[in-house]
Amino acid sequence: MSEVETVSGKPLWLKVWQFPLVAMAVALALMVATLAGTQQLFTVLPEIENAALDMIVRTVVGVGLVFVVYKLFVTRLGARKKDDLPARGSITDTLLGLLVGAAIFTAVVGVAAIVGAYRILGWGSTQDLLQIVLLTGVVAGFVEEVIIRGIVFRWLEEFGGSLLALAISAALFGFLHIQNDNATVWSSVAIALEAGILLGGAYMLTRNLWLAIGIHAGWNVTQGFVWGVPVSGNPFMGMVESGLYGPDWLSGGAFGLEASVIALVIATGAGIWMVWQARKEGHWISSMWSRK
Fold first, then answer.
1. Phi-psi category of 116—alpha, beta or left, where left has phi over 0 and alpha has psi -120 to 50?
2. CA contacts within 13 A on the Cβ side of 213
3. What total of structural domains would you count in the chain?
4. Which residues pair with 240 in a beta bridge?
5. Does pLDDT of 216 surpass 60?
6. 104 in the same domain as 161
7. Does residue 178 share a domain with residue 124?
8. Which residue range(s) make up the domain with 65?
9. Of 51, 68, 83, at which residue does a domain stop?
């Protein structure tokens, strides 16, 4: 075999196939195909008469397919095979994440209430509970973390290091919400900073997805159901009926408290702490050209 056909003892085609950005592109294509296929499957599957059961079944099928494709294919891509959804720690890290996400957003609501930006107006209802838990908790928490942290962050970090991965994945995550109801450029920037850094930090700290999945789900369910705040611009009926008051920079306006400076300070601060802890524990990765 000629020198042109080999690189560092490996065939050139294998070297290209295992290159981080190529592996990332293949993994993203697999996930897009999985999500598109799931949507097509749902159009042909008969609806279950019980609406709640139908929603549960579709959630289990959709999330299950993403899980299976990730386990069977994504974990085998790239030069460094890695499974970010290990069985070990899946329950404890997810439960811890749920508590952390709930605590952070409760702190946001508490500060907003103190400064007069949030008020409880009365009791709400449980009519949206299942939708909030399944769509904003299970689906958003699991699928978005697999794609943004488990694919984008992972291979950007292997290519360009932790800082590049954190910056790009956070920006991508924030601006994926630009099409949401009541979204603005500012709300997307806010989510990029507060949630992008927080969830990226959780992934860096544990080197798996379970903590980030738990934080994501706990954050969404707590703000939507417990405190009755719009979830990334999407209004739901929560346990309480609430109102947001004051200038948009303080209350988040129609988008919700995620677009407030309160969430920006509290959640970003928590995220920076996680990144700092990850770096202290030796989980900071330099770019591939620096490693060479």
1. left
2. 24
3. 2
4. 123
5. yes
6. yes
7. yes
8. 1-83
9. 83
Model pTM score: 0.93
> What token pair was written down for 76?
């085998």
Cβ(123)–Cβ(239) below 8 Å = yes
- In the structure encoding, which two tokens stand for residue 106, read together? 């409760």
Same-domain check for residues 107 and 151: yes
Mean residue pLDDT of the chain comes to 93
Contact 62, 139 (CB under 8 A): yes
Looking at the fold, whether 126 and 153 belong to one and the same domain comes out as yes
Q: How far apart are CA 45 and CA 41, in angstroms?
A: 6
- 153 token code pair: 């962050």
Using the 3D structure, point to which of 83, 111, 127 is the last residue of a domain.
Answer: 83
pLDDT at position 2 over 50:
no
- Strand, coil or helix: 67: helix
Query: What does the pLDDT look like over 93-135, one tens digit per residue?
Result: 999 999 999 999 999 999 999 999 999 999 999 999 999 999 9
Q: pLDDT at residue 43 above 70?
A: yes
Give the integer Cα–Cα distance in Å for 195 and 206.
17
Radius of gyration of the chain (CA): 20
Determine phi and psi for 85, rounding to 5 degrees: -125, 60
- For residue 12, the model assigns a pLDDT of 76
Q: Give residue-wise pLDDT tens across range 143-171.
A: 999 999 999 999 999 999 999 999 999 99
Residue 50 CA neighbour count, 13 Å, CB half:
5
